[in-house]
Amino acid sequence: MNQINLTSAQIPSGCQNCAIRHQAVCSRCEPDELDRLEEIKYYRTVEAGQTVVWTGDRMEFVASVVTGIASLTQTMEDGRTQMVGLLLPGDFIGRPGRESAAYDVVATTNLVLCCFRRKPFENMIVQTPHIAQRLLEMTLDELDAAREWMLVLGRKTAREKIASLLAIVARRNAALTLQGTDGELQFDLPLTREAMADYLGLTLETVSRQISALKRDEVISLEGKRHVIVPDYRRLLNEAGDDSDGGMVI
């Protein structure tokens, strides 16, 4: 894994001060359990565009995304690739009990990962109900996300696909910052338009056209190329063809 220099701003000074503490796999741990995790924990960083792990690689660690975005990608025998999911801050990489990676994990932006050595972490799951319960909840959230994404890719129009992706990122960013979705939401779009096209099964031209249309219709506004402002989250959900908040999605 290619690494970049860590800075004090990137690395939490402790679990209690970690930005993802309330939604990561360790969110319900007691102080003594956090101390045990500290013994098997280390931080790693990955540059944007670099691969965290390849499909089939032996996984010696599991990890939580602290900052940055990663993509889950599957490569077919003829070399074609498909992005099948996004990993946002708080999301979990790896599967306890499985020694090899099921997907390529690629850093979309610079990443900071909070890693745990896999074997000791698997032992902690058995011994620590808080971790096992939270991991189960996150796994069920991931299943809900996969089902929702099947709908996005299979049945929605291009405009609805773009609005759905924006709603997903807006909702996750609000959860990370402990912010509700009633007021104005702001976030930095984690994907380039090229990556959005790949993820959504659209052309680059279609992505650009639909983003411009949502901006023209004042569903969103943009500052620069990446900073998105959502004045009314409910209206964005309506544009996505979704009238409910749904579950946690990736």
What is the rounded Rg? Answer: 18 Å
Instruction: Give the spatial strand order of the biggest sheet.
Output: 1-8-3-6
Approximately how much beta-strand content do the residues carry?
15-25%
Total strands: the figure is: 11
Write a brief structural summary.
With 250 residues, the protein is α+β, with helices and mostly antiparallel strands. The protein has helices at residues 31-39, 118-127, 129-155, 158-176, 193-200, 204-216, 233-239, and strands at 41-46, 51-53, 61-67, 70-75, 81-87, 92-93, 104-107, 111-117, 185-188, 221-223, 227-230.
List the helices and strands and how they pair.
Elements: H1 31-39, E1 41-46, E2 51-53, E3 61-67, E4 70-75, E5 81-87, E6 92-93, E7 104-107, E8 111-117, H2 118-127, H3 129-155, H4 158-176, E9 185-188, H5 193-200, H6 204-216, E10 221-223, E11 227-230, H7 233-239
Antiparallel strand pairs: 1-8, 2-7, 3-6, 3-8, 4-5, 4-7, 9-11, 10-11
Helix pairs in contact: 2-3, 4-6, 4-7, 5-6
Description:
This protein is α+β, with helices and mostly antiparallel strands. The longest helix has 27 residues, at 129-155. The chain has helices spanning 31-39, 118-127, 129-155, 158-176, 193-200, 204-216, 233-239; strands at residues 41-46, 51-53, 61-67, 70-75, 81-87, 92-93, 104-107, 111-117, 185-188, 221-223, 227-230. Mean pLDDT is 85; it is low at 1-9 and 244-250. A 4-stranded antiparallel β-sheet has the order 1-8-3-6. It folds into 2 domains: 3-151, Sandwich (Jelly Rolls); 156-239, Arc Repressor Mutant, subunit A. The protein is built from 7 helices and 11 strands. Helix 2 packs across helix 3 (129-155), helix 4 (158-176) runs antiparallel to helix 7 and helix 5 packs across helix 6. A hairpin with a 3-residue loop joins strand 10 (221-223) and strand 11.
